[in-house]
Amino acid sequence: MSAFLKQLYADRLAFAGLLIVLALGLSALLAPALAPYPEDVYDIHPAQRLQPPSRQHPFGTNHMGADLLSRVLFGARITVVIATVAVGSALLVGVPIGLVAGFYPGWASELLMRLADVFLSLPQAVLAIAIAQTLGPSIPNVILALSITYWPWFARVVFAEVRSLKNEVFVEATQALGVSPWRTLLLHVLPNVATPIIVRSSIGMGYTILTAAMLGFLGLGAQPPTPEWGREIAEARQYLPEAWWYATFPGLAIFVTVMGFNLLGDGLRDVLDPRLRRGRP
Questions:
Q1: Are 154 and 200 in contact (CB under 8 A)?
Q2: In the beta sheet, which residues pair with residue 171?
Q3: Longest CA pairwise span in the chain (Å)
Q4: Is the sign of the CA dihedral 131, 134, 139, 140 positive or negative?
Q5: Residue 186 CA to its chain's centroid (Å)
Q6: C-alpha dihedral (242, 248, 249, 251), degrees to nearest 10
Q7: Alpha-carbon distances of 186 from 95, 161, 181, 217, rounded to whole Å
Q8: pLDDT one-digit tens code per residue, 117-155
Q9: What confidence score (pLDDT) does residue 12 get?
Q10: CA-CA-CA-CA torsion for 125, 229, 261, 93, nearest 10 degrees?
């Protein structure tokens, strides 16, 4: 573990991504303690509406007079929940499908991969919008829409890795020793495809957060007065450019978070698979 962290620290961009992800997690976990006005997140204060950033309100206030910094911090909770559950659900569906389809060729394997190709042939954002719109605006429906549209990525990545590993010597050795196919698949093949799964999960977190924010912007995610970054930007449109802070800080939160997960994903790829290191021997 220490060697892994040293390698990750040596890559400054990856380490910066790790710090951003940790900061997001802590912000979500400690939002009630970090927020300047946690008790006012859902309240209305007409006398304080659209106040610019100040010492009292570092991010300013929104159109309802609520402290924007507090809502951004509480919005991190919604973001973490949506991304974690959606990516975790997609992983639980896509990885087993990729393992089985890659290890057991046949009509069932072809059917599963063609189903994945159908999903991949459609723009994920458009498909997620269609599903969320059909199901109705809510956080659970956003999570379901994102899970349905993201599992094929895991399935395809794992399928390709398993197909390349299936004829390796260590797999043939387990078969010669009489090890059951399922034991070979779970104990010997799966650990060897862990690297692309981890990298895809990290990058997927960033993409899922971005897509969830887009759904929130379109009114398909969390409903008022629940704080959600995409929803905050949507509500800020009619007050631009005068209340520039209203859209700027939730937008920066999305940008920095997505960038953090992407940098971390690239760093994990470099550390876990040295053959793919960016521009390094």
A1: yes
A2: none
A3: 77
A4: negative
A5: 25
A6: 150
A7: 11, 14, 9, 41
A8: 888 888 888 999 999 999 989 999 999 999 999 999 999
A9: 83
A10: -50
Q: What is the DSSP letter of 51?
A: P
Q: Which CATH superfamily is domain 2-42+59-276 in?
A: MetI-like (1.10.3720.10)
How many residues does the structure list for the chain?
Answer: 281
| pLDDT for the residue numbered 26 | 93
pTM for this prediction: 0.88
**Distance (Å, whole) CA 228 – CA 166:** 44
How does pLDDT run across 217-233, given as a tens digit for each residue?
999 988 888 899 999 99
Residue entry with tokens 């887009």: 214
CA distance 50 to 59: 10
CB 155 within 8 A of CB 116: yes
- pLDDT at 212 > cutoff 80: yes
- The dihedral built from the CA positions of residue 215, 220, 221 and 226, taken in this order, carries a sign that is positive
Q: Which H or E run contains 48?
A: none
Cα of 203 vs its chain's centroid, Å: 7
Question: Is pLDDT above 60 for 281?
Answer: no
pLDDT at 276 over 60: no
Q: Is 15's pLDDT higher than 90?
A: no
- pLDDT of 123 reads 86
Contact 76, 28 (CB under 8 A): yes
* Positive or negative torsion for Cα 188, 92, 151, 209: negative
Contact in structure between 232 and 247 (CB atoms under 8 Å):
yes
| 8 within 8 A of 267, measured Cβ to Cβ | yes
Residue 73 in this model has a pLDDT that exceeds 90: yes
Q: How far apart are CA 277 and CA 195, in angstroms?
A: 13
Helices (H), the chain: 2-10, 12-29, 31-34, 68-103, 107-120, 124-135, 139-165, 169-176, 181-184, 194-217, 229-236, 244-272
